[in-house]
Amino acid sequence: MEDGKPSQTALLVAMLRARHYMDEPEPKILRDSLAATLAGAPGEAHVHGYLDQIHTAFSGLSDAETATLFVRQLEHSVCIRQRLLEEELAIAKAAGATQLVVLGAGLDSTAYREFDLCDGLTVFEVDHPASQKWKQMRLVDSGVDIPDNVSYVPFDFENTTLADALEAGGVSRDEITVFSWMGVQMYLTDDAVKGTLAVMAGFPPGSFVVMDFIQPDYDTASKTEINSVEDLRKIVSKMSEPFKSQYSTQELAARFAKAGFSSSEFPTVGEFADRYLGGDKARLQMTPGAQYLAIGRV
Ligand SMILES: C[S@@+](CC[C@H](N)C(=O)[O-])C[C@H]1O[C@@H](n2cnc3c(N)ncnc32)[C@H](O)[C@@H]1O
Questions:
Q1: In terms of DSSP H, where are the helices of the chain?
Q2: How far is it, in rounded angstroms, from Cα 106 to Cα 111?
Q3: Per-residue pLDDT tens for 109-149?
């Protein structure tokens, strides 16, 4: 993150959700009807133009065909992680969860479009102050209503203590809480990741986090998968948001256990194809066995 500037990667993932909502044939993985609005895209051409530039940046690192594949994979992975969160949140709410804490919220639109899902929950959006101010401006400028159950907690993972920020922001440590931590871990140091996991593990049983993490495990991943991560690493570095930590599934499972989580789950891409696309694994164009999402349960 650059001082005084909002997150460019938050804009990127919102644009990917916007394209998915506009262009993806049914069944769509996610319906983020506010993504384009929050990203400040006045029309479809703006979304396409922005993503063409991203495609050009990937092409410069490989070739046009591979770039097309990587941008599609990125879009699908961003949509799948949010869909998983929304499904898990519905289950948790029925089981007594009362708080949703979105860590590194960026242009996440859950609270502004999923009214039934968020009814009965307090939603805390935690983000770098620069990104948070920018989002609040985007909400006001685009006339999106801010529901009464949404609170904002300004926070820098690298410079402040999450437990203090959550307490100051009104998050109760006694309530069953769902943490959404999407597209953030890779931009944090290992110390910040460990500290964040330790705070989440202090919430009551039934609480959990849904997060993504950067693979690949270099022992098992294909060359294409390794290249896609390496190209993304270069592109986000140019956006001044370099990757700072990376874990294999085993390493992240160990981090969860050490922090005090009772269990962790690592669903595969193939499982998502079955659940969200009627088993159409080819449509995701990702290795069915690949794992990049985790649920850590307290
Ligand atoms: C790729 S965006 C993900 C946004 C959102 N979770 C989503 O999936 O749409 C990364 C987010 O992490 C936040 N972030 C990165 N480094 C941070 C830090 N040190 N402290 C607080 N937030 C940070 C950025 O502000 C940004 O909102």
A1: 8-23, 35-38, 44-61, 64-94, 110-113, 115-118, 129-141, 162-168, 190-201, 223-238, 249-259, 269-276, 281-284
A2: 12
A3: 999 999 999 999 999 999 999 999 999 999 999 999 999 99
Domain assignment of residue 136, given as a range: 83-297
Q: How far is the CA of 279 from the centre of ligand 1 (A)?
A: 31
pTM exceeds 0.85 for this model: yes
Q: What is the CATH number of the domain that holds 239?
A: 3.40.50.150
User: How far are the Cα atoms of 140, 187, 231, 293 from residue 243, in angstroms, in the given order?
Assistant: 31, 5, 12, 17
pLDDT at position 216 over 70: no
Distance CA 234, CA 241 (A): 10
Tens digit of pLDDT for each residue in 258-281?
999 999 999 999 999 999 999 998
Q: How far is the CA of 9 from the centre of ligand 1 (A)?
A: 8
Judge whether residue 219 has pLDDT over 80: no
Determine, yes or no, domain membership for 8: no
Q: How many CA atoms lie within 13 A of 149 on its CB side?
A: 18
For the CA of 10, the nearest atom of ligand 1: 2
> Does some domain include residue 124?
yes
Q: Which of 128, 188, 189 to mutate to test the pocket of ligand 1 (most atoms within 8 A of CB)?
A: 128
Q: Is residue 22 part of a domain?
A: no
pLDDT at 3: 67
Q: What percent of the chain has pLDDT over 70?
A: 98
- Within 6 A (CB) of ligand 1 lie 1, 7, 9-10, 13-14, 104-108, 127-128, 131, 155-158, 182-184, 187
Task: Look at ligand 1, atom 27, and give the residue with the nearest C-alpha.
Answer: 106
The number of domains in the chain is 1
